[in-house]
Amino acid sequence: MSDVAAAAVHEPALGFWRGYVFSVDHKTIGKQYLAMAMVMALLGGATAYVMRWQLAWPDTAVPLAGWLPEQMAYQGIIDPAFYNQLVTMHGTIMIFFVAMPLLLGAFGNFLVPLMVGAPDMAFPRLNMLSFWTFFVASVVLLTSFVVPAGAASGGWTMYPPLSARASYTGVEWGINLWLIAVALEFASFLMGGINLVVTTINLRAPGLSFFRLPLMVWMELIAAILFLLSVGPLIAGVLMLFLDRVAGASFFVPQEGDPLLWQHLFWFFGHPEVYVLLLPGVGAVLEILPVFSRKPVFGYRPIVWSTIVAGVLSFVVWAHHMFISGIDPRLASPFSVTTILISVPFAIILFAMIATLWRGAISFATPMLWAIGFIATFLIGGLTGIYVGAAALDIYFHDTYFVVAHFHYALFPSVIFGGFAGLYFWYPKMFGRMLSERLGQLHFWLTFVTFNAVFLPMFALGFGGHMRRIADPTAYTFLQPLMPLHRAATWATIALLLSQLPFLVNFLVSLRRGPIAGANPWRAATLEWSAASPPPHGNFAVLPTVYRGPYEYSAPGAPDDVCPQDAPPSTREVRAS
Amino acid sequence: MLGWFPRNISTVGGDVDALFAWITIVAVVWFVLVEGALLWFVLRYRRRPGVRAAHVRGETRAELAWLLVPALVILGLDFAIDAASARVWRRVKIDMPAGEVQLAVTAKQFAWTFGYPGADGVLGTADDINLDAELHVPAGRDVRLVLRSADVLHSFFLPNARIKQDAVPGRAIDVWFNVTEPGTYEVACAELCGFGHTTMKATLFVHTPEEFAAWMASHAGGQPG
């Protein structure tokens, strides 16, 4: 720990409740989001396991599921209605209760104030309120599993009229609670998003101009803005659907209402939301690549502009989810054009990532493996987006496993590869200790192989025309030849889930036993590494002043291969300027 | 990869499959180029003692060309794919032939009902014949369907014909297809519609025109519309 950092340690005695539970410290709140995301991820993984078993060996008892109550699974055999609940809750949990709290809640909260050189978020109490609103949302969602008739079962997109009348699903309170949970979740991230935006704009350290911001901060900022601009219509939609259910309204039920209105509201939010989940993962990767190749990021400004362009485009592509929904068919091709156009900014970002490696001095610490794994897998998600973005081909692929494989290849790289890249990279900053490299590398390789083994077969299922969200593929003759793929994907899913054990062990054991990290174990240049590990309350002993961009690695003539953003200019630099 | 697809039996299916093949060629080329560059850089530029990384920001015009030139190529390919897709889309979903056979399809939890014109040869009259779960059509004739739903969203999916269209309560949506190979095929529901979604199937019977006329005469007592 440096002298500066040591002087900063004047942790006020807050006691357990204010220190760890109702904390206003952005770092504690970030860790609370992280803990929630990890707990919910276990549940999301469990739902995947049960679904995968049912698909591979339909109507056989799911191992370890014998304890489930009869309305879900009779002696471990999954009821079709419960299967629909699993489909719905898996998507809801993974998107809203794992990806959002991990990428925006945990990373956004923990990193943004540190990276902009601020003592905390702009609104610490609002930050606490955001987390506890999210906590209540999570409890409401979990409660829906145990109410009579079970959890929501309309799919994570909750399309009416199926979701608008209890008689269509048999689910009463499950869907009501789902709507309440999602509305609370949106409110939470609205508050959190405002906090991220204001913190980034107003609390930047002296000298930290926008184009000196670390790209992670740019990505969190743009993600937060996309969320703020897109979620309003869906909050209104959720309220309307709630009224349809509990007050007999007919916003989405004919003849008075229109089911397609919901789809417009949902996807006007839903597509920007994809980038809300994608950008922080991209940001984590872009922080890690320069550190472990000891090079500046290639094309900082093109990356920022590309991200902004992709963000703007994301507001005019939503109908690509609705090509065959019954909208006017003349609308499809224009939305195809805007959708496929998004390949351009994201290609620039991917090329910039790869060019960052060019002529680098690359080392393969665990965070770097995850970052490279992100590039390798996200490319597949991007390329397969062209297939479903082309409206004519979407006629065949819509609502098939091709779509399932595509969006898992788009989101898993960001949330899991980007998420683990970030966790392995910033764990030393969060907890002051290093993770085990050996367990980290094992975790990466197992996850990389098993992830591909789960989702590559799903592309082939999609080629075969296999519909999503059916509980028993053997019901159709034309799906019979695809059963070996289902069984392969299920074995791989079990392996993928077990592959997370090295991480859990590593994470928990290293909290107490990991080697002490020091302020800057990776020899990185951004501001968070100038604070102690973990940073004390208030983060910096003296608020830093920034003199240069975030990725000053291997500058010619410089004695060291890294020049931190807040290191005063050397005589060499002064002379050069 | 087309080998995984169910056998195509419709006049438009070949267009859809060709679009798939051509996007696949583009995607595979880019996949190999990008993964190749990634792998090469990772192996070639791994850290060696005494070798320092180059200080390249990628902000000069010459360096930016490495990002922008491939991006321009992608932009061109995007528009080519858009144009190809729009042509096929127009054929399947916009320029619908009047149809030599007119049928009504009604989806409800969890069954398909197919309505045939009765003796008067006109749909929507009292003598219509409704059949559950059996869709009979003649081979090589344009078939026009009007798709409706009685309750929730469903999706009318003919895997072998590469045809899919959601059924929306409150709307009547037109669908057409022309299947050329006699035989029996499956009709699926592709939109989650409740606990019986998995079982919401029907059978597509493609008859020769003569067989179909005979079938209509015996079942519907009338002429195909």
Can you put this structure into words, describing what you see?
Chain A is an all-alpha fold. Chain A has 19 helices and two strands. Chain A has helices at residues 3-8, 15-21, 26-56, 80-115, 124-143, 166-169, 173-202, 215-246, 259-293, 300-313, 332-341, 343-357, 366-389, 391-397, 401-431, 437-463, 483-498, 501-513, 571-576; strands spanning 73-74, 77-78. Chain A has a two-stranded antiparallel ribbon with strand order 1-2. In chain A, strand 1 (73-74) and strand 2 (77-78) form a beta hairpin. The radius of gyration of chain A is 24 Å and the shape is globular. The two termini of chain A are 32 Å apart. The model of chain A is unreliable at 1-10 (pLDDT under 50). Chain B is α+β, with helices and mostly antiparallel strands and 225 residues long. In chain B, 34% of the residues lie in helices and 26% in strands. Chain B has three helices and ten strands. In chain B, the strands form two sheets. Chain B has a five-stranded mixed β-sheet with strand order 3-2-1-5-8, with no helix packed on it. In chain B, a hairpin with a 2-residue loop joins strand 1 and strand 2. In chain B, helix 1 (13-44) packs antiparallel against helix 2. Classes of the chains: A mainly alpha (577), B alpha+beta (225).
